Amino acid sequence: MPRLLASATILAARLTYWTDPEETERKLTSTQSQQAPSSHGPLDGVKVLDLSEDIAGSFCGRLMADYGADVLKLEPPTGASLRRMGPFFGDDPHPEKSLFYLLMNLNKKGATLNLETVTGRNILKRLVPHVDVIIESYRPGYLADLGVGYDDLVAENSSLIMTSITPFGQTGPYSQYKGEEVVNYAMGLIMSISGIQGEEPLKHGGFQAQYEGGLNGAASTSMALFMQSNTGEGQHIDISVTECVASTAMATQTTYTFMGGTLPRRRLSGSNFGHPMPCKDGWIIVQTGGGATWDTIAEFFGDPQLKEPKFADPAQRLRNTVELDQVVLDSIKERGKWDLFTKAAEARMLFGLVQTPLELLECPQLKSRDFYREIDHPVIGKVKVPASLFNLSLTPYQYTRPAPTLGQHNSEIYVDGLEYSREDFVRLRQLDVI
Amino acid sequence: MARLPLEGIRIIDSTYVFALPYAGGLLADMGAEVIKVEGPGRPDVTRTGGYAGQFPENDIGEDWWNRPSTYNLIHRGKQSITLDMTDSRGRDAFRDLIKVSDVVMENFTPRVMRSWDLDYPNMKKLKPDIIMVSNTGYGHGGGPYSGYPAQATTQEATHGHCWITGYKDQGPSKAGASFVDFLSTWTALFAIGSALRYRNKTGQGQWADIGMYQAGVMFMSEYIMDAQVNGREGGRIGNRHPYRAPQGCYRALGDDQWITLSVGDDEGWAGMCGLMRRPELATDPMYADLLSRQRNHDQIDEIITAWTSEVDRYELMHALQGIGIAAGPVLNSKDVHYDPQFKSRGFLERVDYPKERDMGSRMFIGRPWKFSNSPLAIQGPSPTFGQHNKDVLQGLLGVDVDAYQSLVDDAVVATVPTTGEATPRVPELESLERGLLAGWDPDYLQKLGLA
Q1: Residue B2 has pLDDT above 70, yes or no
Q2: All structural domains of chain A with their residue ranges
Q3: Residues of chain B with CATH 3.40.50.10540
């Protein structure tokens, strides 16, 4: 062990590209027009290897990079599969123009490494002593079969944290099964309560399960890092994306263990309260509770019927819900969503309107929170990206660099860092290792 | 056995409803000492059994405020104290508690914490390295919506998710329940883990200011990019996939039983045609390649439904997964208790209540991650209202016996909420008839082995 540590220390001294923040900063400012960080994030000094090719693992790595970790994306020489996923800039399916890849790999450096070769795996093992965290989302057992599973890698670094994010987790009868967003949502209980009764159960739009897996990856890894900073111990973290989705069904799950019930989807008519309702130029949504009394809500919609006893309390409103919906829908038919939104806030009502992606892009609230940042990508050019998940007073979100182009930092990692000669560096490329 | 990650960390959980209280429960699973603080006249809203809460055996019971399902899942493993923050002695005790804590979580409106001199600058004076986590609908700061009331149900529209959720070519819809609350839950964990590590390295605390709206919008990122650079506004495609085909949710054998599946390549489609005993479809130009399957998705859905509606949903999953196609049944609140994968992983954990609680034993969702070196688990049942008043005030904060008694006498602390009432129950059979329940299983306690 001491020998290993000693050689690790020597190598660490050579890996200045990665281990020395000042060096990193110097290179950043000299080679990029991007703004260098003026302070560090809460994960400053944490080194992460991100082996993931999908949304969930990549989002996990990105969140860690956003809050100060040095994250190196290691992808196959053909590029992570996310590079082939749209939307693409200008609808041009070019490997550097995937907007999904861009979003999920902001603030990371990138190199290529072919783990299907012995040489590639040996290189991975040389990197492991210098990192705190490895993120991966391959089929459970894939890395172990190649001889680079958690047990193999922890032998190189006893405090290593490996965060594995997969559809069903590392264990159990479905661990080898394939997941897709719709499947995670179905098995994660959410579809059973979403959509209309009699119609098919409905998933959320987009890739919420994948994002949820990524956020849970960052959350659990941060806890493991805190423990590592106390005890020096690592962990293998096993995250199931389906279980992430199911965790959002906690009111649903407990209905059974408390009283034997299963919850339905929504009825076709008579349950619009708490669901989007059409108004003149879009949709709004309203909920009782918060600071507004029913009288206030009734006055907001303006129809005197709402003050009648048949709508006076929650039980009555539930009983007469079809009629209630009609009164409310009629009263908003000719009113605009933004006017309703502002007036509802004045009345202290729980109220929302259905915003479109373009409206979100222009949102003054998000502007006040500094949510978007303008970036300059070498192929895509200047675009605004959703940036900070939350605000932090002392070590806030930092934008440092766009997503890496394929193999962008190979030379830094392999020649400057691991000290391969230029000749060997070329050989590694020709042997399809990098 | 290795330690839990948060052993020795004390967290004040002065938060309400779902988002941060749930984070508090998960922090307790990880070994933190979590102290839930409520006002005697301001009990957590989940204590009423509203917000989709249920009572044991549908019976409100005597101490209804300790019995709802959501309250019990969220507050597992915590301590509970009550402090009247409108009384200066209540605020003083809260300040003393901050001095001996590592993290404070709160979800009051920005105005309330300032009025109590408990905003971050003031908290920092009490405990220089305190980590404060605030969760509000729209986040603090000078933005136009910062003071707007908000809850997850209405925010799902405002942060854009309803725009992209819904049946194909129909109006916007919601999915799940209180979705964005859980994004705040996990964001808070990420903020706390990172800030604790930073405090270890530097000795400095800080303030994490979470806005649920902002977290929700983050999960819309690719739609915002597509709108910005390609002028495409997204929209609703039901259960379909933007590229893969076929993908959807199909009727399976039995009442309200469903199977989801997703085919990403031509080999998968050919294999599925074999399972359906329709091998000719693998080479039919209508369906043979991915692009034609996208174009003729409606017809494919009919063909698939003709097959799946005659077959058990689990049988369909195993058959499809057996040839490498992503597939799985729609599981409901009952199914999750019996599914082999969830059971094998111990996703639901059993909590046994002391006899005097009259709550029996219940199964609760644990957490979606396992640590190889730390035995994460629910550490115990939820506390009763103010159960730890004496332990915390006298034991931890050193309030003397007489002073404590006057706090009790003046209702600055309490063990029974002074406001609120239980949300009335509807009998099970009436709920079924009115469509408030999809199903009811009278033998659930026996089947779960909890009787």
Answers
A1: no
A2: 2-247+392-430, 277-353
A3: 10-218+346-420
Mean pLDDT of chain A: 90
Q: Is the reported ipTM for this assembly greater than 0.95?
A: yes
Residue A100: closest CA among chain B residues belongs to which residue? B222
Whether B429 contacts chain A with CB within 8 A: no
Q: How far is A235 from chain B (nearest CA, A)?
A: 5
Flag whether residue A103 sits within 8 Å of chain B, measured between CB atoms.
yes
Strand, coil or helix: A18 = helix
Residue A125 CB neighbour total at 10 angstroms? 16
Contact call for A251 and B260, based on CB within 8 A: no
Q: CATH 3.30.1540.10 region(s) of chain B?
A: 247-335
Query: For residue B112, what pLDDT band results from cuts at 50, 70 and 90?
Result: confident
Query: How far apart are alpha carbons A382 and A403 in whole angstroms?
Result: 13
Instruction: Report pTM.
Output: 0.95
Burial A97-109 (b: 16+ CB within 10 A, else e): bbbbbbbbbbbbb
Q: Does B207 touch chain A (CB under 8 A)?
A: yes
CATH architecture for residues A2-247+392-430: 3-Layer(aba) Sandwich (3.40)
Cβ distance of A220 and B371 shorter than 8 Å: yes
User: Which residues are bridge partners to B13 per DSSP?
Assistant: B36, B105
Cβ of B371 within 8 Å of Cβ of A394? The answer is no
Q: Chain centroid to CA B146: how far?
A: 23
Residues of A in contact with B241 (CB under 8 A): 180-182
Q: Is B182 on the interface with A (CB under 8 A)?
A: yes
Angle between helices B313-322 and B266-275 (to 10 degrees): 130
**Interchain pair B371, A224: CB under 8 A:** yes
Q: How distant, in Å, are the alpha carbons of A348, B131, B149, B355 from that of B109?
A: 12, 18, 8, 39
Q: Which 3-state string (H, E, C) describes B186-251?
A: HHHHHHHHHHHHHHHHHCCCEEEEEEHHHHHHHCCHHHHHHHHHHCCCCCCCCCCCCCCCCEEEEE
Residue B129, pLDDT above cutoff 60 = yes
Nearest to A284 by CA among A360, A347, A354, A332: A354
> Which candidate, A154, A130, A155, A128, places its Cα nearest to that of A237?
A154
A277-353 folds as: formyl-coa transferase, domain 3 (3.30.1540)
* CATH node for B247-335: 3.30.1540.10
Q: Please, are residues A136 and A52 in contact by the beta-carbon 8 Å criterion?
A: yes
pLDDT tens readout for residues B385-408: 999 999 999 999 999 999 999 999
- Asked if residues A312 and A294 have their Cβ atoms less than 8 Å apart, the reply is yes
With contact defined as beta carbons under 8 Å apart, do A277 and A285 qualify?
yes
Q: State which amino acid sits at residue B223.
A: Y
At A313, the pLDDT band (50, 70, 90 cuts) reads confident
Topology of domain B10-218+346-420 in CATH is Rossmann fold (3.40.50)
